[in-house]
Task: inverse folding
């Protein structure tokens, strides 16, 4: 059974960088069939896709966060990571990692729905 | 970028009622739409993909329909365990935008 588990500090100071890691177990992050994504949810609010990465390092980012986001992958550890720089209180949220299916049409890569999610981790931005 | 809207934002219905939630995309997305259920304090769960395909293990009282810009999620007979917020999401091409959610509770 595939499992994803987020880890990282629960408290980050304003203007600093938020760093989280998602560890994948029960399956390989190096599968050609999947991308791995980050989604966040501010308290009491809706879901926002942050970005996604393939095991090769290919990434897609939400344009609204692109200037502050870096997602990386470590296939040797079956992990992928999120860095969000210059955080403010507005970045306080539960951060989820998740898997989505990849399909290729010629030179175009399509990414599908999120079928497996981690439990989420609350990150609070506060001094 | 394509925007996703949902209506209503919340609803209250009785056990056994038929419930319908609408999701609209600002541009046509064919059937590349998923629905998620998020119970209070829990992780979102995939209910439906490809607009109308039920994820394995999801009760048959849930159904989805639509194509292009207009989609619906229907619960044929609302049960107490269906109290949750429901989100639609477009996929296939980035950004993978979620709708704002529809909160469903029991009257």
Result:
């Amino acid at each position: 059974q595939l499992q994803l588990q987020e880890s990282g500090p629960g408290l980050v100071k304003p203007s600093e960088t938020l760093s989280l890691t998602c560890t994948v177990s029960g399956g390989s992050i190096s599968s050609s069939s999947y991308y791995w994504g980050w989604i966040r949810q501010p308290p009491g609010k809706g879901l926002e896709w942050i970005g996604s990465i393939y095991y090769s390092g290919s990434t897609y980012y939400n344009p609204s966060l692109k200037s502050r986001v870096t997602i990386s992958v470590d296939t040797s550890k079956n992990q992928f990571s999120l860095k969000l720089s210059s955080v403010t209180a507005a970045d306080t949220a539960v951060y989820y990692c998740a898997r989505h299916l990849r399909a290729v049409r010629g030179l175009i890569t399509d990414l599908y729905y999120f079928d497996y999610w981690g439990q989420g981790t609350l990150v609070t931005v506060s001094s | 970028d394509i925007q996703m809207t949902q209506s209503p934002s919340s609803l209250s219905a009785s056990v056994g009622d038929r419930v319908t939630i609408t999701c609209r995309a600002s541009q046509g997305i064919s059937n590349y739409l998923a629905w998620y259920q998020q119970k209070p304090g829990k992780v979102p769960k995939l209910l439906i993909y490809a607009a109308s395909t039920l994820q394995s293990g999801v009760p048959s009282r849930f159904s989805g329909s639509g194509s292009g810009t207009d989609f619906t999620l229907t619960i044929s007979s609302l049960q107490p365990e269906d109290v949750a917020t429901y989100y639609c999401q477009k996929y296939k091409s980035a950004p993978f935008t979620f709708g704002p959610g529809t909160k469903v509770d029991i009257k």
User: Anything to note?
Assistant: Chain A touches chain B through 23 residues (CB under 8 Å). Chain A has a mean pLDDT of 96. DSSP finds no helices and eleven strands in chain A.
